[in-house]
Amino acid sequence: MDAVRVEVQEEIPVRTALAPLQPHGLGTMYVESLSSYFQRLADQHSVSPKLIAREFVLPRLGFNNRVGEVQSDRYWRSSFFNGMGEVPEQWCKVLGELTGVDSLRRLTLLPLNGLVGMHGSSSAVHRWCPRCLYESEVEDRPYGQLLWEIGCVKACPRHEIHLISVHGCGTEEAVPPLRIKPLPHLCRSCGRSLSLSSSGDFQPADEAEVSFARAIGELLASPLFAEGPRTSDRTIADFLSEVIRSHEGGYGIKAVRRIGATKGEVSEWMHGRHLPSLPQAAMVASAYGVPLADVLVGRGIDRLHPNPWARDSRRGVFSPYKRWGMAEDMEAQLQQFLRLSIPPTEAEAAGMLGTSSRELRRLYPEQCRAIGERRAQWAEQEATRRRDERLRVVEELVNQMVCEGVIPTIGRLEERLVGIPKAFLFKERSACKRTCEVGKAKLGS
Question: Whole-structure pTM over 0.70, yes or no?
Answer without folding.
Answer: no
